[in-house]
Amino acid sequence: MISARFIVGIDLGTSHTVVAFSPIEARDEIGVFPVPQLVSAKASAARPLLPSVLYAPLDAVVSRDPWGDPPWVGGEHAARRGAEVPGRLVASAKSWLCYAAVDRLAPILPWGADDSIPKISPCDASATYLAHVRRAWDEAHPDAPLFAQDVVLAVPASFDEAARELTLLAATRAGLTVRLVEEPQAAFYDYRWRAGDDVLATLVERGESPGLVLVCDVGGGTTDLSLLRVTRPVAQPGAPSRDVEVTRVAVGGHLLLGGDNMDLALAQACESRLGDEPLDPARYGQLVLACRAAKERLLSEDAPDEFSVTVVAAGAKLVGGTRSTTLSRAEVRSIVLDGFFPPVAKDAELARVRGGLVGFGLPYERDVAITRHVSAFFRRHGDGASAPAALLLNGGVFHAAPIVERLSETIGAWGLAPAVVLPHADPDLAVARGAVAYGLARRGAGPRITSGSARGYYVEVASKSLLDRAVVCVVPRGTAEGAIEVARGAPLALVVGRPARFDLFASDNSRGHRAGDVLAFSEVALDPQPPLFASFGEARHEASSVPVVLEGELTAIGTLDLACVEATPREGTAPRRFRLAFNLHGSAAHPVAPTVPPVSRGRATTGQPLDDARSAVDRVFGKNVADATTRDVKDLVRDLEKHLGERGLWDISVTRALFDALWPGHKARRRSLDHERVFWQLAGYCLRPGRGDPRDPARVVGLARLLPEKLAFADEVRGWQQFWFAWRRVAAGLEDATQAALRDVVDPFLAPREAARKKPKGWKPEALDEMLEMASSLERLAPQRRAELGAWIIERTWTDRDPRLWAALGRLGARVPAYATIDCVVSSGTAERWLDHLLREKWGELPTAIEAALRLARVTGDRARDVPERLRTEVAARLIKHGVAEERMRTVTEYVEVDGTELATFFGEGLPPGLFLL
Fold it and tell me: For position 602, what pLDDT does the model report?
């Protein structure tokens, strides 16, 4: 086994990747490792900054990257060529790692690129940068390969746990084992390593807020805020004296706000000067890169008066056919300083902005004023102090002196004295060097920052004693690294043999909670995190479960480790422990239930009425066949309404209770035509939309196992109607494989005659309208497969006037999915063709035309998804003509936040009261 000789720090930045190192034995020096890379198609050189980009060369231009993975090229050459050739550059992959609305393990980058261009996942892009570093390091240190060194990788402090897990996965795919450190802490470690504690010691007695240091790290993709407190420790007898002790007090929330946003703002200012038509996503990306170069040059010390910005014209070849404009120094300073760093008061509130910069699918922060976010953060965590005593500014934007001056002046105005700006040697290199300093401090070669968990973590549980939704504290805020917290006192029963889901929440200002405390939602400010999943053992029967307790640990590598531990193991055996895994593929449309219990407007939904309803279900689907008459079966739904009130008012607790009463008798559905029809009617209605309750994943998996069994009474049309309607109702909870299996079944019946396929055995071409509605509701399929179904529907619309065809097209082409990740959305070009066809129709004769148009033309702010403005203008005019309300019509003319209630109709009816999707 090779022993580690070096501590290596890696800053896997949005714009650049930087590597620093120090020999473990010689601890007095931290150096930067120049990373060899292509600087032209045929030349390479070592540079301190490795651009975090990948470029897919044109077929006619073959570039071989010795440190890359085909077909991708990295380094300065990739960054330069990506700025010259539109649509072939992967940039800002790090920003996608924390965006749960996409599948971060799927090849989706470059975002918006056509199918002819190679694509890569955000995780694999990050792994490719790290693999480049590993190969370059190993060439320079053949006797000390990187996999065997002590590698510390910096991540934003605001990364959620899933993003951290994805970062670790990227490192593993690159062949590395790493430890994580938060980027603002790393920047502070670098400052302290270089400057010592003399300046820090003077902060303890200075000003209104003794010892508070605000670290503001504005990178290419994120703004990361951390608050540190500097104190003089109480001397312990026999212990070495220390001048100061530093404790991390708080970290900010995730702000997708940084240099990329500034580039987008400049691009918006330039676009109208380049022509009347908006640029397509590929050329707009080229414009953004050109504006980045202009920004960096015009904010430098020796800036010229103006800088040229050029993009390739639409349809132009690589050489010639360009369009240009200029940005002036005054214009750039106005947009960047006044837009992103305006002077604000210490009590400034965040602006309520209707829309925000999206650009390429990422949901950038609405209020782009970084100074207002800093104000809100310090007001929340500064313990009443008016201003921090010192600032540590990190990130590439702080190379620009005007930005440093504006931010320090703004924050300094909040207190009695100007804040001290701690001197920084190089903001681009600080995080990588600080990661090394952190690694050295862990080995005793320097002072450490005391930093327990910056957030408390909570898991939702059912609680009969609390009317509100309840959570159990698993890892309290401030938990020390390596400390294992056991949430005793919160008995939980875990389903065995089926996937179990746990809804995780975090809080950055919770205090005084202990592991095991059960709290109502109203008692703590909670931020939803990606859900957790686990599968435990083999089920011996349908209802098997195991008593467990939750266990949490802030690990030494910088991640959150949560597990279920068997509470009552068999005598003589150790308790089983199962780690909970984050959903890394994406959790768009995280189900949200109300923060107060739903008020029933029908009859009582607990106690005797619900017991009577369960008895009615058992009478029909229970083991005693003789209990139910034919009339009992046919009238079951009507009888349930007698006990529980009108069906539309059943809340989610009632619907899931009825499903759980129905499910044990699922085999009884095959007793008669009516049993089968009523089973699927109730199962779909009570489990809709397939998510929203912690046990829904297990319920939906069980239901999916019935799909291959088809229908026992295959000649009953009403049975097929309820069968397809049930799958549509629970579509949001279906796994990708189940959705694909459903399409495999129905495609032979829905395809046009010339594309006809062999009909699967045992399936009938019955209830084709409900079959189509169900198929159009399957959002988790690849865009190409969903577009294929849309093409079949378009072909039918030439001769068929059925309004349901356009309703299906509206679902298939919706710019905002109801529940899937946005990488499943069909291309804007596909939606454009469908809209063009819809605009030829007489909407007065198609009651579904308006809803379809609203879905197809909705503004998202993402050029890769939005249809052209000229088409949206035509749609808006048609909507006005047909008297559509202004509030609805605005969704096709400007960005409007999606209301969860808008999506309820996607499933064919309203969702259970108290449940909606985001």
Answer: 38
